[in-house]
Design a protein that fits this description.
Radius of gyration of chain A: 18 Å
CATH topology of chain A: Immunoglobulin-like
CATH topology of the largest domain in chain B: Cytochrome Bc1 Complex, Chain D, domain 2
Distance between the termini of chain A: 64 Å
Structural class of chain A: mainly beta
Number of domains of chain B: 2
Shape of chain B: globular
Strand order of the largest sheet of chain A: 1-2-3-7-6
Distance between the termini of chain B: 102 Å
Helix content of chain B: 25-40%
Helix content of chain A: 10-25%
Order of helices and strands of chain A: HEEEEEEEEE
Oligomer: heterodimer
Strand content of chain A: 35-45%
Order of helices and strands of chain B: HHHHEEHHHHHHHEEEHHEHH
CATH architecture of the largest domain in chain B: Orthogonal Bundle
Number of strands of chain A: 9
CATH class of the largest domain in chain B: Mainly Alpha
CATH superfamily of the largest domain in chain B: Cytochrome c-like domain
Strand content of chain B: under 5%
CATH architecture of chain A: Sandwich
Chain lengths: 144, 409
């Protein structure tokens, strides 16, 4: 009986990563890697990107940087590259500046040179270069 | 019957109260701004903003360089024919513009001379943003063959040969303009930095709008009531239906960037002004940008962030800088080539905007406003309140009487 219980636990333990793989990170889980609140988060296909503007809060007409944490799903591969951009979907235009991204350790990045030049709804775009595809995560935010 | 009479009295009382409120609003001349409108209005201040410096210019803010720069700004002998000075196209009495559609140098130039008031608070200089600092912008007209048409060697020779200028140059830069270790180009850049230091001092004072904005911020209805009713209605259009504040944002009434507003941008038949597209190319090619060796800040400095990251886009073609609207009433004619003579013409342009003239991938925020005559007049009245009443009082500061003064003991 006790032996059967151990077997059952082993099966559950073996299945757990499979069940968890492909699920998004819980709210705050990825953001916690930034060690600085407040952060926003974009999720897709189990990948999460948490990001926080520096300086905060977001404002129009000034350059800023983003501290970024990329969190792959359990069992998923880390991206080989990250590109960051932003646009205003309603206006059909993007930024006038191209952000540069530097790695700051495992899964941590800093994007610099962003500027949102109009008030309104902006969409941050994070392109993760995975082994077999580019996965784009997006997060929209209203900028006063 | 008594209940019926009571209802009549109540209704009459409500009418009276409403009427009184309307009369009060009318006497105040106050427009009842919504919370959202108030938030947008407050975003246009406070004024003045924190003091700014000419980026990459270690002389900015230094009294000695400002004195030198002021003298050079008005100096026609910086030009090859002793006719043109910076002040020729940037006259103090004309809000540091020249009142012409297109400036007149050694021939008709291609653009309107922008006002220099508050230029230090601009991210980019010029209608195309080809310069990222006041000092680098100052070099272009000095050398341009259709403007002052000087050379670096001529500039150096002139400054070195004028005792007072040479003295102030030495005080500013720690060595004379004739110093053997500096070449002509280095002296030209220093001259431009002195001019930039002077231009950086041109920050305009408070306007009737600023007083209204601050009164709104502190809830001072009495002070708010001093702001003309037509201007309040125009302001409401500006931040509301007109959505002018989307581009003309912040305390400068400009987001400092560039836009296609459906204007004719032909310089002459068959030739167009590329606007921002050409500006970015010129900026990148310039040895005087903030990434170059002449910047005092260094290429990695935060002041050079804009230059490091600016990116040309196809849509930049035909885009021109969103001008600041401060003291706009004094800077007619308008637009990058002065093609619109009056503020009413500018408002009419946006009111009856021809969408087919916008580039195919242009911004979709511009829509014809279809304003009536009264609304156009209200917008113009509002724009008229963006002028500091003491702007015309500006006079050059008398140079200190010191060891550099010619004739001083």
């Amino acid at each position: 009986m006790a032996e059967e219980g151990v077997k059952r636990s082993s099966i559950v333990a073996a299945l757990a990563p499979l069940l968890i793989a492909g699920t998004a990170h819980g709210a705050g889980e990825c953001a916690a890697r930034l060690k600085s609140a407040p952060a926003m988060q974009a999720d897709r296909d189990g990948y999460s990107v948490a990001f926080a503007p520096r300086p905060a809060p977001l404002a129009t007409g000034r350059h800023f940087a983003l501290d970024i944490a990329v969190c792959p799903p359990y069992g998923g591969g880390a991206p080989r590259n990250l590109q960051v951009d932003a646009d205003m979907p309603a206006h059909k235009h993007g930024m006038n500046y191209r952000a540069s991204v530097t790695s700051r350790g495992t899964g941590l990045y800093r994007a610099e040179g962003l500027m949102l030049h109009m008030p309104g709804r902006w969409r941050f775009l994070f392109d993760l270069q995975l082994d077999d595809r580019v996965l784009q995560l997006a997060h929209e935010v209203e900028v006063p | 019957m008594r209940r019926h009479a009571g209802r009549l009295v109540l209704a009459a009382t409500l009418v009276l109260v409403a009427g009184t409120a309307c009369a009060q609003a009318s006497r105040d001349g106050g427009v009842p701004f919504s919370a959202d409108e108030q938030r947008r209005i407050l975003a246009h201040g406070p004024w003045p903003p924190p003091r700014a410096h000419d980026p990459g210019n270690a002389q900015s803010g230094r009294r000695e360089a400002i004195t030198l720069g002021q003298a050079l700004f008005f100096e026609v002998r910086l030009s090859s024919n002793d006719i043109f000075a910076c002040a020729t196209c940037h006259e103090p009495a004309l809000a540091f513009a020249d009142g012409r559609s297109r400036s007149l140098g050694r021939g008709l130039l291609e653009r309107n001379a922008p006002s220099l008031w508050n230029a230090v608070h601009e991210r980019w200089q010029g209608w195309d943003g080809a310069a990222d600092s006041l000092w680098s912008q100052s070099i272009r007209p000095i050398l341009h063959p259709k403007e002052m048409n000087a050379s670096a060697a001529q500039v150096r020779e002139f400054v070195a040969g004028e005792r007072e200028l040479a003295c102030r140059y030495r005080r500013s830069f720690g060595k004379p303009p004739s110093a053997a270790e500096d070449d002509d180009e280095a002296v030209l850049v220093n001259v431009a930095k002195a001019i930039g230091a002077f231009v950086a001092t041109l920050v305009s004072g408070r306007t009737p709008f600023d007083d209204f904005r601050d009164a709104l911020a502190r809830g001072d209805r009495r002070a708010m009531a001093r702001y003309p009713a037509a201007a309040q209605r125009g302001l409401r259009l500006f931040v509301g239906r007109g959505r002018c504040n989307v581009c003309h944002s912040g305390p400068m009434f400009s987001n400092g960037e560039f836009g296609d507003t459906g204007l004719n941008f032909f310089v002459r038949p068959g030739e167009v002004d590329p606007g921002r597209h050409g500006g970015i190319a010129a900026l990148r090619a310039s040895p005087y940008n903030l990434l170059g060796r002449f910047s005092d800040a260094g290429a990695a400095s935060p002041v050079a962030t804009k230059t490091r990251h600016v990116e040309p886009r196809h849509r930049n073609f035909g885009e021109f800088k969103v001008p600041s609207l401060r003291h706009v009433a004094l800077t007619a004619p308008y637009m990058h080539d002065g093609q619109l003579a009056t503020l009413d013409a500018v408002v009419r342009h946006y009111s009856e905007l021809n969408l087919e003239r916008l580039h195919a991938d242009g911004e979709r925020i511009l829509q014809p406003l279809h304003l009536n005559e009264g609304e156009r007049a209200d917008l113009v009245a509002f724009l008229g309140t963006l002028t500091a009443p003491d702007l015309h009082k500006w006079r050059p500061r008398a140079p200190p009487r010191d060891a550099c003064t010619v004739g001083a003991p």
